[in-house]
Specification:
alpha+beta; globular; 8 helices
């Protein structure tokens, strides 16, 4: 019976090595963080934002947002309720944006507004991505490890 544990070790190592190179598990939760900027990672972040807001978790929702220069996290947390009230985001809207939205670099999706938005946030436009469809817009900053939302406009109005 001593040979069984020695057979399990190679199998266990094989299973551990099968994790996708594009994803790693975050230490702080069960969420997966993309190792590179992808449409799927951006949509997942929008879904988490919508879920947090729809369930009254404003302090969790603000953690999905980029830090706007000069605005405290406390002030941003206080403004999170306005996202739902103004129909800036909803789970249903995120689903439609995910299915029909155009994805790409912020400056490709919004050639006129994209560069100004990146400058306003004091970000390199090359690190910014966007998803847009019929007036609904979502902008993201890739910080090298994960996305943070820098724009969410009219996603909740999609139907």
């Amino acid at each position: 019976m001593k040979f069984i544990p020695s057979l399990l070790l190679p199998f266990t190592l094989f299973l551990c090595s099968c994790q996708s190179p594009k994803e790693k598990t975050a230490d702080t939760s069960t969420e997966k963080i993309a190792a590179e900027p992808t449409r799927e990672a951006a949509i997942s972040l929008l879904n988490r934002l919508a879920d947090d807001l729809e369930n009254g978790r404003d302090s969790d929702a603000v953690k999905h947002m980029g830090a706007y220069p000069g605005v405290s996290e406390a002030k941003m947390t206080g403004e999170m309720k306005g996202f739902l009230e103004k129909n800036e985001i909803s789970s249903a809207g995120v689903t439609i944006l995910a299915e029909k939205g155009k994805w790409g670099k912020l400056t490709e999706i919004f050639p006129e507004r994209g560069p100004r938005l990146a400058e306003k946030w004091q970000l390199d436009p090359e690190d910014c991505w966007a998803l847009g469809y019929e007036g609904a817009e979502a902008g993201f900053h890739w910080n090298g490890e994960k996305f943070l939302i820098i724009r969410c406009d009219d996603v909740g109005k999609l139907n």
